[in-house]
Amino acid sequence: MTILVLGVGNLLLSDEGVGVRVAEALEARYVLPVEVSVIDGGTAGMELLEPIANADRMILLDAVTADHPPGTLVTMEGEDLPAFFRTRLSPHQLGLPEVLATATLTGDLPNEMVLFGVVPESLKTGMELSSTVAGTVDELLGHVTARLEAWGVTVTEKSA
Amino acid sequence: MRITIDPITRIEGHLRIDCEVDGGKVTKAWSSGQMWRGIEQILLGRDPRDAWAITQRICGVCTTVHAITSIRAVENALDMEIPLNAQYIRNLIMGAHGVHDHIVHFYHLSALDWVDIVSALDADPVATSKLAESLSTWKLNGAHEMRAVQDKLKSFVASGQLGIFANGYWGHPAMKLSPEVNLLAAAHYLQALEVQRKANMIVTILGSKTPHIQNVAVGGVSNAINLDSQSALNMERLYHVKTLIDEVGDFVKNAYLVDVAAIGAFYADWTGYGSGVTNYLSVPDMPIDTKGTQFTLPGGFIEGGDMGTFQAISNYQDKYFEDNVAESVKHAWYEYSGDGKARHPYDGETNPAYTDFQDDGKYSWVKAPTFKGMRAQVGPLANVLGMFAAGHEPTERYLKHVVGMASSLLGSEIPLTALHSTIGRHAARAVRCAVLYETLADQWNRLVQNIGKGDLTTFNKPVFPKGEIKGFGYHEAPRGTLSHWCVIENGKIKNYQCVVPTTWNAGPRDDNDTPGPYEASLMDNPIADPELPLEVLRTVHSFDPCLACAIHVADPDGREVVKVKVL
User: Fold this and answer.
1) What was the ipTM of the complex prediction?
2) Looking at A101-105, B142-146, B164-168, which range is the least confident one?
């Protein structure tokens, strides 16, 4: 079984990059078995078809604008995910929504998908997370590792 | 009447196009970038060795090209020599990225402007296969394959979820292909999804990761070469790369080139639309020496569509290129200090000055670049014409092949001047893709031979002097000439400007009020139905637009109802 942890977002627009930051933290702090691949997807498009098509299960990490205060953690599962990504005005030529739609067409969509996200506070040009969103990274990471464990993966924290 | 398309779908960034339409054709056009790109400001004060990792975040589609160009700009400022292995490895990465990008652009971004997917449901699979086999020897053109594709499309349409095909202009009067040609194109659309994955795998193997390569550095690449080590670039990986190059090349030569020729022949009227700005700028690429004075692919400037005016740009120190680039903000939402006139990128400023959309004033976040004071078109067409003018043999061969095939399908001779058009940009992109394939094979041979001689060097250490230095780097990227310009003071970045391909093509009017390439190319385009301006999209998409800046936040409060659960 292959599991993909995919962090997406633009690192140059502060909280927009939180998905990538959480993916980085996962790789930095945990020892993961070979069947788990962690990818910093940035704002890429069709390059992501390969890892997504190869995955049986996928955890997506992203900033999510929702009707909730900044820093609120949100989640979404299964079939809601492609529909969810269709709702946003993708600034990308062929962004994640199109990649997921393409994977649907080719029958390559992972069997199980979950999104963990956080409502951003700042989308200003800059490479730092706002303190509100930076404060949620550990909690998001906890959801990711818990899900990996629920999927039968042994996740070990690296010794300091 | 006036039509506004905002945003142009399937487009990077957020591009708005306004057209005045009179008597069924476009009489005036405006191209407007609707987002501010202030990314250069993040770079100020940083270590120049880190700039590439930051600039590759400018755009999700063009990560690799910004990384390489940034590195070249800093190396240029330091007047560095780069080990041959590093040049070849970078060239392989860039070439593979280019092939990937061209295939995706044609099949997955623009083909559906010309191909009617719904019409393909009515095709006869046997007739489709016969037609395809009369055009090429591509292995996946059989009747069985065509029937399988048609069944897949039928079940997809029957499910009521058109998904990726939801926004098409199906049944539009400007759609002219027969059901069989539509089915053939749909089959290759699906096959191209597989092929682009292979092209991208080359980038992954050599660049350590994708979509953000990890292996480049100011001074070379970080790949360790050891033919016997499992953890380094070894013979097994190199042969894997070679296999992938050949598989991708097979598709490019036997499917992509053929499809473009067929679409060109069936839409021959579109060789009469979309020329616009016929000053063409391209730069040489695929350096094959340590100093950047010899290149596999030539580039230069052509004025007024006249190949006789071609002037080559010949090295990384070339003053003809360095001195002749400027950017105007007269019609862009910025202001310059001083007289406000167009500025050279070294002196560039990024001070926002937003007004409303003013037809005769400022109307875009994109600046308007000029070369020798003139507007210039960049992209595969500019590149192919430049290489042709320079006498580059593979370019000439593939160009004649495509134009010849289209001519025989049409039943009359298509002149090379037909390339100055909307269809011409697609033809040139396919030609460039085939040229890049050959270049990949050539670079692979050079790399293996050089390693065979015992040269394992991949990196020269950069040393930053005290005081101020300046440099520029360029790359002939999939969408055209990309340049980065940096000023470094005491080892820190003092100024940084990126002049990206879409800036050249999508820029607004300049200091002389001369329209940019998008704007000029839309003039006189026919508009069959102003409510469904497919023709405008055809011309704009032919440039492969990419307004890199990319805000990316997901918004669940949109059209569809989805359930977000608070954790």
Assistant:
1) 0.85
2) B164-168
Contact B43, B496 (CB under 8 A): yes
Q: Which CATH superfamily is A3-157 part of?
A: HybD-like (3.40.50.1450)
Domain range summary for chain B, segments of one domain joined by +: 2-541
Contact check, Cβ <8 Å, A76/B563: yes
- CB under 8 Å to B6, separation ≥6 — which residues? B16, B17, B34
Cβ separation of B552 and A95 shorter than 8 Å? yes
What confidence tens digit (pLDDT) does each residue in B393-450 have? 999 999 999 999 999 999 999 999 999 999 999 999 999 999 999 999 999 999 999 9
pLDDT tens digits, one per residue of B22-62: 889 999 999 987 665 667 788 999 999 999 999 988 877 78
Whether B60 has its CB under 8 Å from any CB of chain A: the answer is yes
CA distances to A152, B277, B343, B349 from B323, in Å: 61, 21, 11, 17
* 3-state SS assignment for residue B393: helix
CATH number of the B2-541 domain: 1.10.645.10
Q: Within the 153-192 window of chain B, which residues sit less than 8 Å (CB to CB) from chain A?
A: 156, 161, 163-164, 190
Q: Considering only CB atoms, which chain A residues are within 8 Å of B553?
A: 9, 16, 62-65, 88, 120, 123
Chain A touched by B54 (CB under 8 Å): yes
Q: State the smallest CA–CA distance between residue B162 and chain A in angstroms.
A: 9
| Distance between CA atoms of residues B125 and B144, nearest Å | 8
Lowest mean pLDDT among B5-9, B243-247, B256-260, B356-360: B5-9
